Amino acid sequence: MNLPVTTKTLPLLAISGPTASGKSALALEICDVLAGSGGVWKRAEIISVDSAQVYRGMDIGTAKPDAAARARVPHHLLDILDPAQAYSAARFAEDANKLIGEIRARNHLPILVGGTLLYFRALLEGLSDLPAANAEFRERLESEAAELGWGALHARLAQVDPRSALRLHPNDIQRIQRALEIAHFSGVPANELQTRTPTRHLPGPILRIAVMPPDRAALTARIEARFSQMLNAGFVDEVAALRARGDLHPGLPSMRAVGYRQLWRHLDGDFSLNEAVRLGVIATRQYAKRQMTWLRSEAEKWRWIDPAELNAAARVLSMLSESLQ
Fold first, then answer.
1. Fewer beta carbons within 10 angstroms: which end of the chain, N or C?
2. What is the CATH number of the domain that holds 120?
3. How many helices (H) and strands (E) does the chain have?
4. CB neighbours of residue 115 within 10 Å
5. Residues 311, 274 share a domain
């Protein structure tokens, strides 16, 4: 596909959607179509937009691209951190922006692929000037939660930031902690700061593709099938190896990833493997629902694709070509 392009109109392709919807497969297909097209770009490179795939040793449970996929197409922002470390949307935006420039300099098409929508927002639209994470404050919150329970801290959040409290489930520990941190250090509710979000201007046109299966039941079946495949591939052993390190714990952002926290609790003896799997599938379905809700709230920014439709990759490239006219 011969896409009209100049150095002043280098595009960016962003592909998102709920977990297990087929984002990665579509991106790889697009790369194959480009490679065989003889057009302006003979290659594309993929930038992962996934808050868990950044961690080394977390391969199976994050559905990280395998060695064959990485040999087929260059992938970026995989395996860049140890699970004991923290990563942020702001750091992702900085890393991804740098990579986009490097990929374009090679005259390759940068393709953002993933389901961490906060990362997309940070890169494509920018983030407010939020206070940085404070380890001492977070330790204090965790000590209070150990004594009073996270429900009490959720109730506290309802006093200082009612809109965030309404939006967050009482068990959403990470986001409750962050909302309390923002309110404490800025004196302003998180929601109010987010409304001040500046616009980030990336050069060139941006095409956003939302991979959205029209049949919710089909997506649920895909989620269940993928969880089963991960178990067969050694997911429990992967979590056991992380747990055996001794320096990781369930409160870390890496270990709060869907699937990992449920299997960790199974290994702690809290419940059976069957129950861990059941809870992991439920949590994955809930995560997919949140992703779909977010994308629908930004429907005017995204072009919708059914991943099962014939020639989906060619259709996406046609849209990209139209954006360059």
1. C
2. 3.40.50.300
3. 14, 6
4. 26
5. no
pLDDT band at 39 (very low <50, low <70, confident <90, very high): low
User: Residue 147: how many CB atoms within 10 A of its CB?
Assistant: 8
**Domain boundaries, position 209:** 12-129+204-214+295-323
Query: Residues 73, 214, 64, CA angle at the centre, nearest 5°?
Result: 30
Rounded Cα distance between 266 and 269, Å, is: 5
**Strand pairing class (44-48; 206-211):** unpaired
The span from the CA of 212 to the CA of 305, in Å, is 6
Distance, CA of 122 to CA of 290 (rounded, Å): 18
The residue behind tokens 């994955």 is: 284
Span 98-115, pLDDT tens digits = 999 999 999 899 999 999
Measure CA of the first residue to CA of the last residue in the chain; give whole Å: 14
Let me know how long the chain is.
Answer: 325
Cβ–Cβ under 8 Å, residues 259 and 283: yes
- Gap between the Cα atoms of 110 and 11, Å rounded: 8
**Residue 1 located in a structural domain:** no
**Alpha carbons 281 and 225: distance in angstroms, whole number:** 10
> How large is the average pLDDT for residues 32-61?
88
Residues 32 and 85 in one domain: yes
